[in-house]
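hiii, so i know i said id send this last week but things got crazy w the move. better late than never?? heres the sequnce for the chain we talked about at the cafe, plus the structure i predicted for it. fair warning i was half asleep when i ran it
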Amino acid sequence: MRIIAGKYRRHRLFEVPNTKTRSTKDRVKETLFNMIGPYADYKNTLDLYAGSGALGLEALSRFSEKCTFIENDKEAYRVLTQNIDALKLHNITDKVNIDAETFIKQSKTKFDLILLDPPYQENTLTTVLKHIDETGCLSSNGLIVTLSHKKTAIEIPTNFRVKKERWVGITKILLIEWSD
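okay and structure toks below
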């Protein structure tokens, strides 16, 4: 697993050595970031269910100025820390060892880009999207990215709309924004 584009391109990332955490494949990351666009202006990123941090680190490599990583699993959090240390990104990252729902419910920060890539066996996206809607932690021009199994049903709160949708193998990618 590696960062595929931007300033940290080709940097190898440590992977979480367990079956609970799924590595995001390069093909999925490439499709996702092509969907977001090469001139994205999302400065403050939130990587929920961060795992190794691959998605948030890719965003930092390409366009983000700051990223907050949320990871509940102790082993994944250790690997996330290793990847941030290896890239020496302490000054532009925050990491919290807490579950995603608790963090969102407590968040007072506005994020421009929220990356949601929970374990496929957990169907938490509907609940987390509801909490993002309730707390308003997505900036007015912000974007939410969800990755899920292609058969996972996700209820989108009425205040949001799906901007783009793609499938890569078994992965469904949704770009979600505030509805007008």
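btw The helical segments are 26-36, 54-62, 74-87, 100-106, 125-135. thought thatd interest u
miss u guys!!
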